[in-house]
Amino acid sequence: MAAPAAARCVRKFWGPRGGPCPLRAFTTIIPRVSQVDNSPDFLGNVPHRRHPGVLHLRSVRLPAKLVKAAQLLVEQSTVHGLKDQVVALTNYLWSRKRPLEASELQMRGQQLEQQLREKVQPRTADASSPLTDAEEEKLQRRVLNRLRKTTYHWEALRYTDELSLVYMAARLDGGFAAVSRAFHEIQKRVPAFAPRTLLDFGSGTGSVSWAAHGAWGQTLQEYLCVDSSAPMLALAQRLLQGGSESPQAPLFPGVYFRQFLPVSPKVKFDLVVSAFSLNELPSLAERRETIRTLWRKTDGFLVLVENGTKEGHQMLMEAREIVLGGGDKVAHDPREAHVFAPCPHHLPCPRLNPERPLPCNYLQAYHPLPFRWNPELKEELFSFLILRRGPGAGEEPWPRITQAVLGRAQHVHCHLCCADGSLQHTVITARRHGRDLYRCARLSHWGDRLPVTMPPGDAVPGE
Q1: 3-state helix, strand, coil in the chain (%, to 5)
Q2: Are 238 and 255 in contact, with CB atoms under 8 Å apart?
Q3: Alpha helices, DSSP H, located in 306-433
Q4: Which residues form the signal peptide (predicted)?
Q5: Spatial distance between the Cα atoms of 281 and 304, rounded to a whole number of angstroms
Q6: What's the distance, CA 375 to chain centroid?
Q7: What predicted TM-score, i.e. pTM, was given to this entire model?
Q8: What does the pLDDT look like over 192-251, one tens digit per residue?
């Protein structure tokens, strides 16, 4: 299922605005929350629709020069059936899973062999005779055939010149929108952050550099794009040159392309990003080592973005656990890791319920590349994780709105991830919670933070 189709399913399930049906039996009042703030002038002259927890972007537009360069590359290409290839690649990337570990595959094989053996050779009171060589060989063949049918077969993508162009047409705009939303969170909450250096791991088409230039172009002096695919790097460089085949001056300076990460642990970057790249790594061990390497090179913020699927969310939670758990033999930076977004806590993710795991994802509207098969407006369903160097002092533990807000007559339904590590389906009214909180909640959107205060005794230890 493509990301836009998944977004439509979300809206179909949750209603036209994405809100759940108002089932009173499953709703609760926000625990231990009174007003937005104890002071009546909390908002000052700021209207409720711009309260300090607002983080969403209405819609994202790609830079005009990037759009023009992408159109020029498509016009110059000789790829046949580009639309069909774009749809096929989009669906494939959206449904892609992590590679299965050898230990897990072995365990599945042993369990399957035991089940099939019990059918072929039922247990009896006395020990039955062993299978013949022919029967044993037939059993092993059945085990292998069943494993092939029930096990996801992960393959590394080899980006040729043609596949790189298809990827650009399929994912340049959606990836740019998701990363722009993550960068906007940092801009809004830490306006003093002015990065000078950027590392983009798995840079692909270079959309991260374009988004970073749009956010911090006044201060960024170095953009290091790392991707193992030489054709993809060449495509990103052509986009940066306006799509021209002949060497041209880049549309913005300071961009460097490499196929490998810098070796020295002393080389650090103010902003480190990995967008839609973790699933390209062939094993959990390699993902762990890559995350540790990226965190070592982080001097300010580490931004991770993946598809808004269960697989994407679980990979981000793997990364979160790796960074928060430490484990480096040599501490290159004594500053602690702090979860900046979207989690308002350092506790286990409440959505990773073993019985029914749900992805923590968000929607971002954007204007896609103006190809004939694209609508005027699309939505990107994505998951993200932002980690920050330092203890996070002064950060408000405001809850995150994890689904679309549902406004009803004189009350509002909100689904919140709270600082105590719990998920709350809350009903907010002006009479019970005050007009400020009610208006702020009613005008909030999926992904915003709700500016509510918690009594000192209810703070989570260590947060």
Answers
A1: 40, 15, 45
A2: no
A3: 310-325, 430-433
A4: none
A5: 14
A6: 24
A7: 0.85
A8: 999 999 999 999 999 999 999 999 999 999 999 999 999 999 999 999 999 887 778 899
